[in-house]
Amino acid sequence: MNAPIRKCIEIAGAALCCLITSCGNDSVVPSKAAASLPANEGREVWSAEIVISAAASTKELLESVASDFSGGLKTTVRVNPGPSSSLANQIIEGAPADLFLCASREWAEKVKEADVAERSVELLTNTLVMIVPKGNPAGIKRPIDLLSSQVKRIALAGENVPAGKYADQVLAKLQLLESLAADNKIARAQDVRGALSFVERGEAEAGIVYSTDVNVAPNVEVVHEFDSALHDEIVYVLVLLKRGAKNPEAISFFEYLQSDGADELYAKAGFRRVGQGKE
């Protein structure tokens, strides 16, 4: 074989080797969490989607925090809002979720008892308020006014839902619950956002919701804020589920939800971190 032909073969062989080598290295890094993993570790369980099942009252908040967290990353955070009680039961029955943010300690404990939780933290708190449609057509100013003949319906979340339980505790301590129930004035919604909607549409003269819910309902107004001594402490518990513990992105989001950056978004939405007093 003459020298020019041999030289051509050598060049072609070298090029082929480079091509094979470059194809063997995965250069796509879906996110910062994936980039930090050792080669091939966790690839079978890693997902670019994080699913967080969350109390209905936190829907807009979590969408905002999720957007801030995933900005610039190829990670999708899917928020699944609903009543804490229903979401907990779904998770216990095997519904796919990486994180769970519920509006009471009770439902976080039930998830732990079912052995589907990895770890948890008490994250946020809120305030219970009485709302009326814009303009307050029934002239309600105090809880006692709910007994007025002008009030036909008061909207509350379901009896098993945290917001509904807190509302029942308040009305019971104010010695109003039995009378309102006897007069068939209580209208139950699936969750606190359902109760909010009843009032916003004018289907109830009053309702009891969280103070943060009012931020997404321009057609209602707050007429009374309940003393926190009238109900159990409102605590939103964040749970990292065992499914999420296998997903590096879910672990990162669990940690981000406890960060200073997230605190700014909580304050903007009217939530407070557990242990922080009102300003």
TrEMBL record:
User: Entry's PROSITE patterns?
Assistant: PROKAR_LIPOPROTEIN
Which SUPFAM superfamilies does the entry mention? Periplasmic binding protein-like II
Under the heading Pfam families, the entry gives: SBP_bac_11 (PF13531)
Q: Which UniProt keywords apply?
A: Metal-binding, Molybdenum, Signal
User: Biological process GO terms, please?
Assistant: molybdate ion transport
TM ranges: none
Q: Which PANTHER family match?
A: MOLYBDATE-BINDING PERIPLASMIC PROTEIN (PTHR30632), MOLYBDATE-BINDING PROTEIN MODA (PTHR30632:SF17)
Q: What is the designated name of this protein? A: Molybdate-binding periplasmic protein
Instruction: List the gene name.
Output: modA
